[in-house]
Amino acid sequence: MKVYHLSYPNHLYENENNEPYALAIGFFDGVHAGHQAVIQEALNKGKEQNMKTAVMTFDPHPSLVLGGRKEQIFYITPLEQKIEILKELQVDAVFVVRFTSDFAKLTPSQFIESFIKKANVKHVTAGFDFTFGAFGKGTMEDMEQLSEGKYTVSVVGKQELSGDKISSTRIREELKAGNMEKVKELLGRPFLLSGVVVHGDKRGRTINFPTANIQPTEGQYTPATGVYAVKIRVQEQWYNGVCNVGFKPTFNNPDEKKLSIEVHIVNFDQSIYGEEVIVHWYKRIRSEQKFNGIEALKEQITKDKLVAINYFKQA
């Protein structure tokens, strides 16, 4: 899979063979089940018309440039992770368009001229609510009307789960609530968080439950505080684990809030500081709580570990 990083007005396409593409277009944060329907439609069109399939996405999030949101943006799938997922979906190319102030000013027709026609796109697929161009004024109807016969268009309708639209916003709400089983349904796969194992306070070792303290990749969304059944990939091997997300109230001053993500890996005893790991999240076992002493904490962690082990036995 080829990845093209494009910016406007410079560094546009270097399509040496000028190959035609069936293109799926959208921001695709999460590459969730709804997004996958759009991408699958493009894959089907590419196969039907003997074309390669490409996905066009944007970076960074438009609101960072347009200033519409004051809070920090956290991605369900940061760009590197998004590209890896698209590779697994077997698309042939990804066009990552740099979202800048100049890019945001393009009219719908200018966008189509620079980013659709010049890329030799012969079919465009997007979701029913996709908009483009300055102020999001371009709709998929405009995409078709402005084609001048150079490409065809298909629109994928609203994808629903339990009667509600599958959306990145809905997934963030479920992550905020810790509903990882629902998140898995919406994504079509477990939620994934990547990071590096760093030194923590090493308190877990003193109570016989050593943990990997994970510094997540910057900009990733972190699920709600609590204890979770997870799987963790270390050095290309997957292990079952119990993850605590929170502020460790049994030990820490409640006024000094520093969020930690710690995974106790079942049947594992290696030093893995500095290793890049991936955590798949499956089920929230309980909320974080303060215990009256270390023995009570150890007893609860033992129970949590058993819940996680049994969960994966039955999964």
TrEMBL record:
Reaction catalysed by this enzyme: riboflavin + ATP = FMN + ADP + H(+); FMN + ATP + H(+) = FAD + diphosphate
Pathway(s) it belongs to: Cofactor biosynthesis; FAD biosynthesis; FAD from FMN: step 1/1; Cofactor biosynthesis; FMN biosynthesis; FMN from riboflavin (ATP route): step 1/1
Protein keywords: ATP-binding, FAD, Flavoprotein, FMN, Kinase, Multifunctional enzyme, Nucleotide-binding, Nucleotidyltransferase, Transferase
InterPro entries named among the record's database cross-references: Cyt_trans-like, FAD_synthase, Riboflavin_kinase, Riboflavin_kinase_bac, Riboflavin_kinase_bac/euk, Riboflavin_kinase_dom_sf, Rossmann-like_a/b/a_fold
Biological process (GO), any one: riboflavin biosynthetic process
EC numbers on record: 2.7.1.26, 2.7.7.2
Database matches in SMART domains: Flavokinase
Segments forming domain Riboflavin kinase: 186-313
Entry GO MF terms: ATP binding; FMN adenylyltransferase activity; riboflavin kinase activity
CDD domains: FAD_synthetase_N
Record NCBIfam families: cyt_tran_rel, PRK05627.1-5, ribF
Family note: Belongs to the ribF family.
Protein name: Riboflavin biosynthesis protein
